[in-house]
Specification:
seven-stranded mixed sheet, OB fold (Dihydrolipoamide Acetyltransferase, E2P), single chain, alpha+beta
Length: 112
């Protein structure tokens, strides 16, 4: 009798587990990365503002990174603060961004 009750409870619990939404997974984590490359485009006229940087990987392949630039992103040229509109195509840039389920979000941009 106890074995039947135990089996019935186990089946009930497993059934409930399949109905529950999954807990947070690695896919929902936010990851911060930094890349160094060349500014391909900076568009302050759209909402959200964006930046595109071409990165050359160690194996000589190109990686194109495009990120949204929120208003609180820190943008600098040397030691001075600047704006996204002041960036020019072809400039060397270092972009630190957050990789989230919503896409890439620039946290800081530094041009030399």
């Amino acid at each position: 009798m106890r074995t039947k009750l135990y089996s019935l409870c186990l089946v009930f619990v497993i059934g409930l587990m399949t109905l529950m939404p999954p807990l947070a997974t690695a896919a929902t984590e936010t990851i911060q990365r930094t890349v160094r490359g060349t500014v391909m485009a900076a568009n302050p006229a759209v909402d959200p503002q964006t930046i595109v940087v071409k990165v050359i990987l160690p194996n000589k392949e190109e990686l194109i990174v495009g990120a949204r630039v929120p208003t609180d992103a820190k943008i600098t040229r040397g030691t001075r603060t600047t704006g996204l509109a002041d960036l020019k195509v072809g400039e060397a840039a270092e972009v630190t961004y957050l990789k989230s389920p919503d896409g890439l979000i620039a946290r800081s941009i530094h041009v030399r």
